[in-house]
Every structure is written in C-alpha cells, then in structure tokens.
Amino acid sequence: MADESVLHPSLIVPVGHVEPVPRRIRGMIDGRVAFDTRRALYVWEWAAYPQFSIPVQDLVEGVLTDDGAVEELGAGPARRHTLRVGPEVREGAAWVWDKGAPEPLHGTVRFAWEALDSWFEEDEPVHAHPRSPYSRVDALRSSSSVRVELDGAVLADASHCVKLFETGLPTRYYLDRAHIDWSHLALSGTVTQCPYKGTTSSYWSFRGDVTTHEDIAWGYDFPTIHANRIAGMVAFFNEEVDLYVDGAPLPRPAAPTP
Questions:
Q1: CB 99 within 8 A of CB 77
Q2: Which of 29, 151, 192, 244 could anchor a disulfide with 147, C-beta 3.0 to 4.6 Å?
Q3: CATH code of the domain in which 151 resides
Q4: Same domain, 150 and 245
Q5: CA-to-CA distance for 192 and 55, rounded, in angstroms?
Q6: 20, 25, 242: which is closest to 149 by C-alpha?
Q7: Are strands 51-55 and 62-73 parallel, antiparallel or unpaired?
Q8: Contact residues for 65 (Cβ-Cβ < 8 A; gap 6+)
Q9: What is the CA angle 47-1-129, rounded to 5?
Q10: Residue range(s) defining the domain that contains residue 23
C-alpha cells in the first residue's frame, strides 16, 4: 500500500508537464537491469506526483513486445507493451508514448511501478512512486510536548517529539516509544510505503473497552536518510486521535495519510 500525497493547490503541477530528471534511474527485475538511464523524464499524469519515463534506447536487459493496444494515460495515448527481462515476463507492464502525447515523451516508455522489483535513484532505492522535485520532508527535533488521547484513554504523554513536515500534508508528531501506553494498542499486519520516508515497520490498532480503531499509529524502524530522525519512533494519525501539542488541542484533518 502506498501513501497518497494530497498537495496544497498552490503546489499542484499541471497534468502533462514534462521535465528532465537530473539523476541516474535504474529498474531491476530478479537481479537483472531492465534499464539504466541518465536521460529519464518526469511526466505528471496526475497532479500529486510524477512518473518516470525512460528512453527506449536505454533499456539494458529489458525487451518490449507490442501488445497491439493503445491506451489513454494521464499525459496522452501510449501503446501498451509486455516487458521481458531474462526469463521473467511482465505482461502489459509498459507503455511507449504514441502520437498525441507531449513531444518530449516520444521515444520513451513509462513502466508500471509494481512491474519492476526495485527502482533506484543513483544508488538509493525508491519506494512506492517517484519523489516529486517539488515536495520535501523535514524531520526536526522539538521541545513541544505531545499528548494523545482516544475514547477517554491517554495513549501517549511526551515532553518532546520529532515533528515531520511533509509538503502539503499535516504535521506528524513522532514520539519515543517509552512515552506510549501500549495497554490499548495491538500490533497489526499493515505495511505501507512512502517515497520520502521508506517502508513502515509496524502499525498499531486501538483496542478499547467498547470500541476499536484500526491502524491509528505507525513507525519506521529504518526510514530513508531524509527522515532518519524518526527511526524507532511512533506517530499517530492526527485524523483518528485527539492530539494536544504544548497543551493546546489540534483540529483533526480530513483524510488519513501516513
């Protein structure tokens, strides 16, 4: 499950916008290099974040077979292809941009993200989808106190926190585990991925005397370098709990996004 970024309107990039990626991009399947390029393009098929489009000439072990179908993607028409890398075949996993798509995309291919086993920017893995060049994450230590309550139970009471500021999203408050009352929290099997923070290690659900609330808290044991200060800490959904920061209650945002 990937987290879905909901950007502030002023940060939205127009659908169909294309610009160069100033980084080496590689895709792997079963340990083999499907493509390796320093000429990738960002293409916004929807406003929240871009996809990578790869020059067909920069395929390494990847082989494309035309499926004989033209499909309309967010940035225009593209011919669907099957991707083969060694013995591995991923049917309908690629789209070569066709006439009617933005001119810079001609001669490039957009892959379904999940069709590749792994993606790399330079030598760093990328999770869930490409990182937008117009978004950022800052994890800052803070002396703000944080109290978390739900259905009358105090789930956490911390004298300090790490505040995580992610473009277009609510501030998240990451707490040391020693400041959390675990008696109402049960480990769940949920896992999500974020291109800016990495893959979650755990989610927890609330088990009250009367009610339950699924997946209200999460943690990253091994976050990306961009968010390394939240390693081993736990955050609660602002949308699902009552948060008090420096004694003041916070309004609940509308939709959950870890």
A1: yes
A2: 244
A3: 2.170.150.40
A4: yes
A5: 30
A6: 242
A7: unpaired
A8: 81, 82, 84
A9: 40
A10: 9-126
